[in-house]
Amino acid sequence: MMSAVTDSMAERTGRTLEQWVELVAGSGVDPLDQNAVRRWLREVHGVKQNSQWAIADAAARAAGWVRPTVEGYVDAQYTGAKAALRPIFDAVHAAALALGDDVVVEGRGTYVPFVRKRQFAAVAAATASRVDLGLRLPDPPASPRLQAATAPGSATHRVQLTAVADVDDEVRGLLRAAYEQNG
User: Fold this and answer.
1) Do residues 90 and 48 touch, judged by C-beta distance below 8 A?
2) Secondary structure letter of residue 85 according to DSSP
3) pLDDT tens-digit profile of 96-132?
4) 156 CB contacts (<8 Å, ≥6 apart)?
5) Residue closest to 91 by CA, chosen among 76, 118, 112, 68
């Protein structure tokens, strides 16, 4: 999608991506503050959302920013007091990847989403003693472990996990239901 956005940038906005990056660099807006760059593009130049994201990303990269890898996001989330939770994440990660070759793992600052055609699950180190598995379940199966979700990501339900043993057949079944309902 990003390629389609950048390929038609000049046609849609009147400037190429390279011209926008130069304009951002000379604007006085910190190119590493992507929120500020997107806001400036929207408010000052009327640039639409997809183009804002592409320009802000390119401007930040030109200024030396390097996008963290998924592993980098995960490592950052499971350090310090939450380091002991990493095996729980690893168990959910393995279970999600086992669902199919179309599972994509993405990185975010506070949670890790699992995506098929759309996000079907997300894992977050909720506290120093608990990982929350968020599931998007438009048609949830009956399970006493499912709770209404407020986070992470776009989940409709969550399951609280405090040990690797909590990632059992029931949780793998709930994960599979979310996978199947979002593909």
Assistant:
1) no
2) G
3) 999 999 999 998 889 999 999 899 999 999 999 999 9
4) 135, 136, 137, 138, 140, 148, 149
5) 112
